[in-house]
Amino acid sequence: MGASISSQIESFWQTEVELGREPRSLGGSCRESIRGTNAARNTSGEIGIESERGSEACVQVLSLSTSRQDFVRSRSQRVSQVAPVSIEVESQVIDEHARAVNASVYRNKLFSVLFLLHITAVTTGVVYLGIEFALQKGQSKIHTLKRWYPPLGAAVVVGNIFGCVCQIALKLKPGEFARAVLWINAVLTISAAVMLLATGLSLNLALGVLLIIFAVAQSLYSCWVSYRLKYAGDILSASLTPANRALGIYRISNCILIVASFWMALWIFGLVGAVKHTLSSLIVVVLLGSLAWTMEVLRNIVHGTVAGVVAQVYFDGGNPTQYSVKTSLHRVCTTSFGSICLGSSIVPILHALRMAARGLNRLQGENEFLFSCANCFMGIMDTLIGFGNNWAYVQVVVYGKPFIKASQDTWNLIKHCKLDVLINTDLTSSVCVLSGISGGMLCVLVSGGWIFAIHKALTTTISILAFIMGYSMVRIAMAVPQGSVAVHYVCYAENPTNQQLLQSPISERLKEVLQALA
């Protein structure tokens, strides 16, 4: 009977502890029962067998209750001592569960379907234009191929090589690369301008003058932001550390570059066929729009893959594995692909408009009308940027959110932590963009010089197309550092005390910027 009572007591106490309550009410009721039993014994001198058993049970309950209360108190003290760790572990488990659930949900499916339909339509159209061009009679088509394909093909190759060189330089010396690319871009731009001016053609003269103005403005900009280069090097170094440990990221980036190269080769084939078409102007515009969207999607595939891998390092610690790289790439290309396609269609437009608003805001001067227009434009763009930004890809891939929701949540998180003030002064995005421009200008020199030597009249057209191709290829390669920096900021905003981010330069730089604005 005693064993049965003890087991029942143990079961009751365990239930109470699991529910977070101390079993004091049971002990108190047992004390009252014992007092009543003793009073009855004193009065009548007799007690029944059931009363004796009840009394014994209550005595056991009372003794066990007292010991259990002491245990619960000690347990509560231990829990209070390790509460932060327990809460952190629980939140990680919840986040992991949320990530696992959302990873299986396809987001923004309409845009993934639209993109695939667009690829199918463009591929069909390009093949049709190419076949139509190949069936033309005469030797003119041979001359056309010789004039277009080799220079533009060279632009693709040069863009690939320059992008890989930029990746290697960033891995080895991020700070030095950030400083060097500002001046490399100015030198290459002036060189391309001189080459265009040397043709003597009126359109090339105008384009060359514009490039010289841009090069001078770029040189002045480099002098103006030189004091920010140290932080740019520090944040690039800190952000690329986990990415550099995952060699699979760079393999994926190189594979995407190969895919982009094949797509451009097919695209050039269609472009050459469109030159002799009656609707050549319209077809070229459509092909350029298609190329821009496709290259942006490919770039953001790399960006999203990097975000997923690096975020896992910040959340879980340790080194990224080949499995984590494959998992991130699979999520980007399946459940998050629609969000990638949607973001690739609107983010470049919104960021270009925001850059224009910021430029207008700096040039407003003391004119009250310009001041009002600039502030209004800037306010509109600050609102719109919350619906589409590069930071959203982190939550798109990590948490499986739809793109618009991820944009809003990420931007609100960044503004809540006042990181938007720091981001506006960060040069890492400028470094990536200027790297792309440098690659484009290098392709202008190579391809433009090539076509200048064999057919001067096409110098302007080939130079513009070569710039677009070189810029696109380098930007795909630079998606690795840009994605690493983006996930670094977002993860810091989510948890500034993250053990993996204790050495981040964000804290000190944020204090400096806020003090300067105070």
Provide the helix percentage: over 70%
Q: Which band does the percent of strand residues land in?
A: under 5%
What pattern of helices and strands is seen along the backbone?
HHHHHHHHHHHHHHHHHHHHH
Output the number of helix runs.
Answer: 21
* Class by SSE composition: mainly alpha
Distance between the termini: 76 Å
The count of strands amounts to 0
Major sheet characteristics:
none
Radius of gyration: 33 Å
The oligomeric state of the chains shown is single chain
Shape: globular
Compact summary:
The chain has 518 residues and is mainly α.
Describe the structure.
By secondary structure, this protein is an all-alpha fold. The chain is built from 21 helices and no strands. The protein has helices at 2-18, 24-44, 49-81, 83-102, 109-134, 140-172, 174-197, 202-224, 229-244, 247-275, 280-316, 322-333, 337-362, 368-384, 392-398, 403-416, 419-425, 428-454, 459-477, 479-494, 506-517. Residues 1-94 have low confidence and may be disordered.
Topology:
Elements: H1 2-18, H2 24-44, H3 49-81, H4 83-102, H5 109-134, H6 140-172, H7 174-197, H8 202-224, H9 229-244, H10 247-275, H11 280-316, H12 322-333, H13 337-362, H14 368-384, H15 392-398, H16 403-416, H17 419-425, H18 428-454, H19 459-477, H20 479-494, H21 506-517
Helix pairs in contact: 1-3, 2-3, 5-10, 5-13, 6-7, 6-10, 6-18, 6-19, 7-8, 7-9, 7-18, 9-20, 10-11, 10-12, 10-19, 11-12, 11-13, 11-15, 11-19, 11-20, 13-14, 15-16, 16-20, 18-19
